[in-house]
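To the wet lab folks,

You asked to see what we're planning to order before we commit. Fair enough. Below is the target structure as tokens, and below that is the sequence we designed to fit it. If anything looks off to you, flag it before the synthesis order goes out.
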């Protein structure tokens, strides 16, 4: 096993692995331990008591971070005519129809979110093998298949976070940056956890939220108690 450096050892020693912290306490501790030379991302990971192989236990959704995420989001929009103009005006970096699909099939990957008007799903559907594995396939349940492309682009740019449970029953997301105030990190975390609670599927049995961990990119994980914000 590689020997830990002094910085990493100090970070690990500052975290009590035998207790859970409130969201506010965790935000303070994680921020304090984010001492890398870059602006670390603050991440939250939630272990759920679901088996996503069953349709009635799938957990997915989207939530607007009250304070944004600190991440620049590049958006691709499938739309024509006036809707394409609306998407461009809202700040979408990639806008088009068949020509955009061809660019993506040719290897274009410079976007983080894909939005489409309903009439464009015939074109977008051909990209399932490309967009699906990246979790970028537009979905009406996430608000990314919509005639109101301007609002969808604005939401993505403002820090809307999409989430989907992985095969192991884990949901994770970036909820801010180490440069954020701890109070803003906590507020974002509360918003994300509330969205997870509301997304509880009908097929979930027993304990739904099993474990919550908050960390920074280079920091130690901090266990967070499952307590709704007051």
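Sequence we intend to order:
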């Amino acid at each position: 096993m590689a020997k830990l450096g002094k910085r990493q050892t100090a970070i690990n020693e500052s975290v009590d692995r035998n207790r859970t912290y409130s969201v506010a306490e965790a935000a303070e501790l994680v921020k304090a331990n984010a001492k890398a030379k870059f602006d670390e991302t603050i991440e939250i990971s939630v272990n759920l008591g679901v088996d996503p192989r069953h349709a009635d236990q799938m957990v997915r959704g989207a939530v607007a971070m009250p304070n944004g995420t600190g991440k620049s989001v590049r958006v691709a929009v499938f739309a024509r005519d006036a809707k394409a103009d609306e998407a461009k005006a809202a700040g979408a970096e990639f806008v088009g129809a068949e020509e955009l699909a061809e660019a993506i099939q040719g290897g274009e990957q410079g976007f983080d979110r894909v939005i489409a008007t309903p009439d464009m799903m015939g074109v977008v559907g051909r990209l399932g093998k490309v967009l699906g594995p990246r979790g970028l396939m537009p979905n009406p349940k996430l608000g990314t298949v919509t005639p109101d492309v301007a609002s969808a682009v604005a939401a993505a740019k403002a820090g809307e976070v999409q989430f989907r449970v992985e095969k192991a029953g884990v949901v994770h997301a970036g909820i801010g940056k180490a440069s954020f105030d701890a109070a803003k990190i906590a507020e974002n975390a509360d918003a994300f956890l509330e969205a997870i609670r509301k997304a509880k599927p009908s097929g979930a049995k027993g304990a739904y939220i099993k474990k919550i961990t908050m960390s920074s990119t280079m920091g130690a994980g901090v266990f967070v108690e499952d307590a709704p914000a007051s």
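Structural context that might help your review: The domain at 75-158 is CATH 3.40.50.790 (Rossmann fold). Strands lie at 41-48, 60-64, 75-78, 94-96, 113-116, 160-164, 170-177, 209-216, 222-224.

Thanks,
Computational group
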